[in-house]
Amino acid sequence: MTGVTLNQAIKRYGETQVIHGIDLEIEDGEFCVFVGPSGCGKSTLLRMIAGLEETTEGQIHIGAREVTHLDPAKRGVAMVFQTYALYPHMTVAENMGFGLRMNGVAKSEINEKVQQASNILKLEPYLKRKPKALSGGQRQRVAIGRAIVRGPEVFLFDEPLSNLDAELRVEMRVEIARLHNEIGATMIYVTHDQVEAMTMADKIVVLRDGRIEQVGAPMDLYRDPDNRFVAGFIGSPAMNFLECDYADGKVSHPALGEPLAVSANVPAGMTKVTLGIRPEHIEIDRTGEACTVDLTEALGGVSYSYLLAPNGDKLVIEERDDQRSRQGDRIGVQLRPDRVMLFDPESGLRFR
Amino acid sequence: MTGVTLNQAIKRYGETQVIHGIDLEIEDGEFCVFVGPSGCGKSTLLRMIAGLEETTEGQIHIGAREVTHLDPAKRGVAMVFQTYALYPHMTVAENMGFGLRMNGVAKSEINEKVQQASNILKLEPYLKRKPKALSGGQRQRVAIGRAIVRGPEVFLFDEPLSNLDAELRVEMRVEIARLHNEIGATMIYVTHDQVEAMTMADKIVVLRDGRIEQVGAPMDLYRDPDNRFVAGFIGSPAMNFLECDYADGKVSHPALGEPLAVSANVPAGMTKVTLGIRPEHIEIDRTGEACTVDLTEALGGVSYSYLLAPNGDKLVIEERDDQRSRQGDRIGVQLRPDRVMLFDPESGLRFR
Amino acid sequence: MFPKPIEKQPRAAQITYQAMLPLALLLWLGPLLAVALFSVKPAADFTNANYWGMPSSFEGAFNYGQVFFNSDMPRYLLNSFMITIPTVIGAVALSCMTGFALGIYKFKSNLWIFFMFVAGNFVPFQILMVPVRDLTLQLGLYNTKTGLVLFHIAFQTGFCTLFMRNFIRALPFELIEAARVEGISEWRIFWYVVLPLMKPAIAALSVLIFTFIWNDYFWAVVLTQGAESQPVTAGITSFNAQFRAAYQLMSAGSIVAALPPVAMFFLMQKHFIAGLTLGAVK
Amino acid sequence: APVAAELTGELRIFLDTSNPAPRATMEAMIERFAEQHPGLEIETTVIDREAYKTQIRNFLTADTPDVATWYAANRMKPYVEAGLFEDVSDLWAEPEIADNLASTKGALTIDGKQWGVPYTYYQWGVYYRKDIFDELGLTEPTTWDEELANCQKIVESGRACYTIGTKFLWTAGGWFDYLNMRTNGFEFHNQLANGEVSWEDERVKQTFANWKQLIDMGAFIDNHQTYSWQEALPFMVNGDAAAYLMGNFAVAPLREAGLTDDQLDFYQFVSINPDVELAEDAPTDTFHIPANASNKDAAREFLRFVVSADEQTEINNGANLGQLPVNAQSAVDDDKFLQQGFAMLSSNSPGGVAQFWDRDAPAEMAKVSMEGFQEFMVKPDNLDRILAKLERARERIYEN
Amino acid sequence: MSVVDVSDQESWFHKNQQRIAPWLFLAPGLLFFMVYVIIPVFQSFNLSLYEWDGLGAAEYVGFRNYEDLYWEWVDRDAFYTSLKNNLIWLLLYLAAIPAGLFIALFLNQTVWGIRLYKSLFFFPFVISQVVVGLVFTWFYDPTFGLLNEFLSLFGLGPLNVLGDERFVTYGIIFAGLWPQTAYCMILYLTGLNAVDPEQIEAGRLDGAKGFRMLWHIILPQLRPATFIAFVVTIIGALRSFDLISIMTQGGPFGSSRVLAYYMFEVALSEYGFRMGYGAAIAVVLFLIMLCFIAYFLWSMYREERGH
Ligand SMILES: Nc1ncnc2c1ncn2[C@@H]1O[C@H](COP(=O)(O)OP(=O)(O)OP(=O)(O)O)[C@@H](O)[C@H]1O
Ligand SMILES: Nc1ncnc2c1ncn2[C@@H]1O[C@H](COP(=O)(O)OP(=O)(O)OP(=O)(O)O)[C@@H](O)[C@H]1O
Ligand SMILES: [Mg+2]
Ligand SMILES: [Mg+2]
């Protein structure tokens, strides 16, 4: 059992509290991704798990052991940094074997482990090179290799791909996913990249201001967010939100024409709700005239139109077929009612 | 008339020639985007227009004036740099007014113009700040403001958004597009971002190794590329290319099952052609078994599946509906014949 | 690049520039060239008031021979080396450690200790003169190379710490964190991770300190006297007393005294300039 | 010596005679002393002459030798007052020394006790280019008027009368010594050195007025403030200056520079005020026993040995120090300058013998005043300001 | 809750490693620095209240030494001269900054062999001030110095720079400017390397050229280099000792003294050994320098906070 459990974990820097009592259970072998806006505490949380930051209050367990105040070295974790943090004066092989060497492991054993890891990561041709002589992707692979060699129970990644360019990012993403399949260790991964989070995670943890907003599988979060923040954060382009009047199970908004019946447990007496709908769940009604196309962006296979509702609200819709809207067109929209979500305008909580 | 015309423009650095006789006509008020792989000469070309690089041979006209050997300041152009290149010791207002000040414009007039520009870009609250105290997006806006204030006939942008993070990039993209609509000046814009090129350009110039591959409106390039390079370069995920046998107007490939009839003017005697098809123009035939799903990536509204053809070729397909493939599935594919393109395997030229 | 690259300017400007470079250099190094010229002249040239003309005969070998075989110069040179080299080693070693401590660890008094080093580095060293002299006397190290070396090490530690700490600050902190996660003790992090990365700084600093110490005159005068322990800067004054008004010998002596740092500078030019960039401009 | 044979232990001797010739002389002398005392282990340390002046402060308090060289008069006063020198009045009571060294006793006496013994001294005076004097038809002057007349002729011939280099100040002190002693007498000079007379005293002003006469007529070379005494030698060698007021040690470099004894001669500084007796500068170099010495018996024996008539003859002869022996029983080398100097000091210096300005006046006062002399030589018009400054310094320095 | 074993010495050290380690690393350097630099500063303060000739016992005299300094100031004596000269040094030495900038601009090109030129121009900084002093002494020599040969070409001179109390300080400062300019030059050369080329281009587009480009765009970016050049020049000016000692020994008649030299002269030279008085002079010098140290530390503090 080498899952990771956080129990009311709190982090303060002097007066300012940046992590507010996080409870989280990460299963053995799970791939868990932390996402959230910049400054929400993703890195801090990860570094608390690694032991690089003191945990102010609460407990952290790795497997059955409590590690809250343990030395980083003793936690059985390995970390991969955004900047790779390779030792520039050592060759790839030395980089990977360094931790073992310092801990007095025999040469032959080190060699063997380095060999294994470089096998997995296809690093053999580069073992004798210094990091300088490697490309960004290769460096990142070495950093991962260094983590693997130590055979940790938990891997920690802090935005490991954000220094790579788009193409390489895709490649390495696939690589890390493959690695996870192969060695099956628990992995915790911080990113702010939608695509990485969606495609790699078994479980996504959405953080905001040092608190967990929602935890769940990627498509669960996409389809079934708990609140407006998660709904808006996951998915690109972001979900559209319209402030609507609500009455009798129906929402009305100038953009919609007819009030729309939505099945959601809106508490009695609510007259205003926030409606959420993703761009791809809006269909165009070319006979309608309620909205104006403000701008269209054709990306090739898909295009996005930015609509202005009669009351000035904005809506993004996705169009796929070749017959697309043009700037200035007046069109109507129809929302797929099963995809419409309603949120409390105050708290942002979703009415399910 | 303030279009830009390049006439056999050539640039050499010592022995190495990096721009090979470019002929290009950019209309007055047009938004022209240069794209191409890294090192193809986009920046060099832009800087030749700006006058920051000597033009070795050929002529450059801005409007009716020949400017080939004119001082940058005298060309009536303004440039926005990737790194913003704001003067760190001047306030926003001073930054924007600096060019006018250098040209001896009266204080009151400078103030007025700065005011106008900051109006357009919503920079009023920041006029007194130093660039250090601004966010990336604000800085970029100031850089644009500085360009506007000088009232140039031509705006030049060199990857102006690539230092911003994803969200801001979208925002600023819309902003620049709006600005172009508003002031209607000629703009030349260098980027390597697909989305920017597709959404902003009136005209895209695809460069490769210092030569123009194709010039045209974005969707024209997307739908009707002249050659394999352009076809592969424009669109994301990239077009799939399959090396096929060709006979009697039909192409055959292990992934396809039946040979597929394609209408294209393939020269007589050709037995091998390269077939190109975009991911969104492939349909899944769940009864088929020719291909294996190697990996799927669900991004929410859309998901991409990476297929392995029986002969090991790779194919990416886009799936939108909720019933998606899973890793290991065996499926067949059907290409939309009207969307299939054929290219000469040698020269890469398209058979239309 | 500012000013505008000369190769982008008209041919005439380029040629003028190329021609002006050696001229300017001659002018700039004029005084030194004069000394070099003096050092190969025969004594007769000075009595005949042929100060600035060509040597009437080339006496370089004789003059330098005098310096090396007929004066205390070799001893002074040797002293200089015996003072400079241990100082360089000591100051660099100490400051590697202080720089590491101040650059890597977060503790309350960190910044204050750092500032203390910096401030001490800029203290007018005259204020240290009397107490340091007394201290050295009490330690029985007055007029010994050791006494001079110890003080130099201590005083240079201020500057070196400033330099090293800023250099270490600029290293990616993740490297240390990575090592910590790997379970490497602090001492070994210093030894195996940080020290190898500081090689360029160490090289740069060594050259700098070498020059500083070699050229030190003040402390040489305050803490030592006599040929058995004085370095060449102080030695050259008594050398000059010995050969008073023998300009050719004084010149030769000066050239000899100036040579080692110059040689050092040329050998390690790259590091030297890098060192100034790092240590100073930072 | 009768008691000598039993001496044992270690004898450490510090010398400041660092120039090659004197060094060899002293080492040879010590060698001879060692031969007489085979039981004694002698260790000699030679320290650079300039360095010695500051180092003596250190070794007198720590790591002390048994015998050390130094200078007489006020120069030894700080150490005597600090109790760092041994009282050797007992030696001076011994007839051999009492009888033969009487002439230098005063220079080594403070508070009525003697604190060391001299081993050599040398005369000061005017060294001049006899050939130039001959060329201009001049003779050695003896009075101030003759001096001025001579000088006038020399200046008219396009030369300076005197070369001098005042960069290190003390050479100007020599001029002041002579001018003041000749103008106001030895007693007055001593009082001034001891801070008993005001610098703004009319008599002092008279001294400077005499000096100014020379300055105004261009007697001294230009730019002397930029030269050391050695750097001023070439002016004399090249014939740009006719004379040099200097100690006898100047003879060697002048000879080395190629002047023969035919070209070079010596005369006593002229008398100015006929009412005062002639007095001379004759700096005395000395040996002392530090108070912390460990082998004082041997040290005393060494001092006796140094001043003995034979040794004095030996070490001061032309081949060695080339200076004057302090023992009246010794023979003076027949070098012409030594002979003249010896004659002058023993028979023509009734006023007394001064040590030299920077040995007679306290160090601080010497420093400030010599700076003043230098300034005066360059800007004689500043005299009042200079004297006011010296007077202020006097008030401060002698106060405690 | 599992408690870590504290009984073992090893493990206690390990547990507190991060807290103890910096002090262990600091200890030797700090010890040295304390003993040789920090404590002596305070000792000097203390000593300045005593009168002591370095031999006997020190006598407490309170502020007597400072009082004497004050009177020297009032009487325009040595202390006054030294302080005045120090101010002249401070002011004129700063000329090294524009001069260094000028040479740096001149050399900031990429022609063949420029690297060699740059290092040769840096040369004067590497050689000892003792040698520099000697060289310039000859340069100024009233009988054969190059300066006078040069002046005589214009029918001027002769000038005895080092022998004339009106010129001597300027003459020495000029000699000092030679290596100091080289130092500033190298600082500016490295600074110019770091100038953002895009800003220069932006400036060109904005129509700034030549001096206006330098003033408005380059100089502001060279601020860090200028700052360091300023600091090292000020400190160099206040520390100036070697040149004076070699070239004039404070003369003629003490007119080229500065505090640093005066202090040495008073405390340790042949006629000196007024230790307390010397310490008092050093304290004054220290207080002047303290303004600059404080300014420097304050700038650094702001920057540290900025990060
Ligand atoms: N040493 C510190 N002292 C005070 N506050 C800190 C410190 N380190 C981080 N913080 C604060 O803690 C919060 C969380 O920072 P953290 O680096 O964990 O954010 P993040 O989610 O990783 O952001 P990003 O996506 O930008 O990396 C931020 O508001 C930050 O300002
Ligand atoms: N000063 C120079 N000397 C020699 N070659 C140069 C110089 N500047 C650019 N080049 C070469 O010119 C070519 C075009 O460079 P340019 O910067 O225009 O490419 P780019 O298309 O802007 O690339 P990127 O997308 O990476 O910015 C490159 O191959 C580059 O190596
Ligand atoms: Mg982070
Ligand atoms: Mg580019």
TrEMBL record, chains A, B:
Q: Which InterPro entries match?
A: AAA+_ATPase (IPR003593), ABC_transporter-like_ATP-bd (IPR003439), ABC_transporter-like_CS (IPR017871), ABC_transpr_MalK-like (IPR015855), ABC_transpr_MalK/UgpC-like (IPR047641), Mo/tungstate-bd_C_term_dom (IPR008995), NA-bd_OB-fold (IPR012340), P-loop_NTPase (IPR027417)
Any one Gene Ontology cellular component term annotated for this protein: maltose transport complex
Query: Matching Gene3D superfamilies, A to Z?
Result: 2.40.50.100, Nucleic acid-binding proteins, P-loop containing nucleotide triphosphate hydrolases
Tell me where in this chain the ABC transporter domain is found.
4-234
Coiled-coil positions are: none
Q: Which residues form the signal peptide?
A: none
- Taxonomic lineage: Bacteria, Pseudomonadati, Pseudomonadota, Alphaproteobacteria, Rhodobacterales
Family membership, please give it: Belongs to the ABC transporter superfamily.
Q: PANTHER family, from UniProt?
A: MALTODEXTRIN IMPORT ATP-BINDING PROTEIN MSMX, MALTOSE_MALTODEXTRIN IMPORT ATP-BINDING PROTEIN MALK
Can you name this protein? ABC transporter ATP-binding protein
Alphabetized GO MF terms = ABC-type maltose transporter activity; ATP binding; ATP hydrolysis activity
| UniProt organism field | Ruegeria profundi
The highest taxon in the source lineage is Bacteria
Q: Which UniProt keywords are present, listed alphabetically? A: ATP-binding, Nucleotide-binding, Transport
Entries under SMART domains matching the protein: AAA
TrEMBL record, chain C:
The ABC transmembrane type-1 domain extends over 77-268
Q: How does it sit in the membrane?
A: Multi-pass membrane protein
Q: Which Pfam families match?
A: BPD_transp_1
**How is this protein named in the record?**
Sugar ABC transporter permease
Q: Name one GO biological process term.
A: transmembrane transport
Q: Where are the transmembrane segments?
A: 21-40, 81-104, 111-129, 149-168, 189-214, 245-267
Where in the cell is the protein located?
Cell membrane
Record family assignment: Belongs to the binding-protein-dependent transport system permease family.
Taxonomy, superkingdom: Bacteria
**A Gene Ontology term for the protein's cellular component:** plasma membrane
Q: Which UniProt keywords apply?
A: Cell membrane, Membrane, Transmembrane, Transmembrane helix, Transport
The record's listing under CDD domains reads:
TM_PBP2
TrEMBL record, chain E:
Gene Ontology CC terms: plasma membrane
Write down the superkingdom of origin.
Bacteria
Q: How does it sit in the membrane?
A: Multi-pass membrane protein
Q: Where is the ABC transmembrane type-1 domain?
A: 82-298
Q: Which residues cross the membrane?
A: 20-42, 87-108, 120-140, 167-192, 213-238, 277-298
Gene3D superfamilies xrefs: MetI-like (1.10.3720.10)
Location comes to:
Cell membrane
Claim: Cell wall biogenesis/degradation is one of the keywords in the record: no
Q: Which Pfam families match?
A: BPD_transp_1
SUPFAM superfamilies reported in the protein's UniProt record: MetI-like (SSF161098)
* GO BP: any one term: transmembrane transport
Q: Which keywords does this chain's UniProt record carry?
A: Cell membrane, Membrane, Transmembrane, Transmembrane helix, Transport
Family membership: Belongs to the binding-protein-dependent transport system permease family.
Q: What is this protein called?
A: ABC transporter permease
Q: What organism is recorded for this protein? A: Ruegeria profundi
